[in-house]
Amino acid sequence: EDQVTQSPEALRLQEGESSSLNCSYTVSGLRGLFWYRQDPGKGPEFLFTLYSAGEEKEKERLKATLTKKESFLHITAPKPEDSATYLCAVQPDYGGSQGNLIFGKGTKLSVKP
Amino acid sequence: DGGITQSPKYLFRKEGQNVTLSCEQNLNHDAMYWYRQDPGQGLRLIYYSQIVNDFQKGDIAEGYSVSREKKESFPLTVTSAQKNPTAFYLCASSITRVSNQPQHFGDGTRLSIL
Fold first, then answer.
1. Which residues of A touch B108 (CB under 8 A)?
2. Which of B48, B58, B106 sits opposite A43 (nearest CB)?
3. CA A52 to chain centre
4. Which of B39, B60, B88, B110 has the fewest CB neighbours in a 10 Å radius?
5. Which of these ranges, A39-43, A76-80, B13-17, has the smallest mean pLDDT?
6. CA pseudo-torsion sign A27, A33, A37, A38
7. Stretch 38-97 of chain B: residues touching chain A, C-beta under 8 Å
8. Which residue would you say has higher pLDDT here, B14 or A73?
9. What local confidence, expressed as pLDDT, does residue A97 receive?
10. Tens of pLDDT along B52-82?
């Protein structure tokens, strides 16, 4: 069964304390992996797309990496404004046919000043 | 600015009532989607549409209906057959469904039962 698991469920950091969020996935084939940020009461905001193992993307304090089984979202020297829920979604490939996005449950990040 | 507009932000439903959630996009995207978000769960796909006048059921379509008469608009009706409608509903769009391009989301409608 296709599955996306995010860990930890919640993460509390002090401002400046770097850490990583994990997204592990089980799909027969991968079309793409997407990271989103969601603030309370808002829709998810797109951050990154990763397509193949070894790929990395960066944006400000965030860096996303991808292996064959998981993706990491690294947060370097976080600030309180980075507090949000981070969602991971996987787009499966079924023998050349694209599947619908499968979302993880998210990691709620809190950064204290 | 291009984007996705969902309305209303909050909606209340009475027993036996159908309610319709609005979703409009000005991104010129072909594909549109409706998701449901419940606490502690990942987003679940209700319906999607790849082109005008065409739509497909997602994983949890029972109790919901949609239409796609215009490229910009993809309204969702929550019918009285949906017995547990309280949730946060998110509309999304992408350039096409098969392009591997990311989906972009509106700011959601929160539906509650009176």
1. 41-43
2. B106
3. 15
4. B39
5. B13-17
6. negative
7. 40-45, 48, 58-59, 90, 92, 97
8. A73
9. 81
10. 999 999 999 999 999 999 999 999 999 999 9
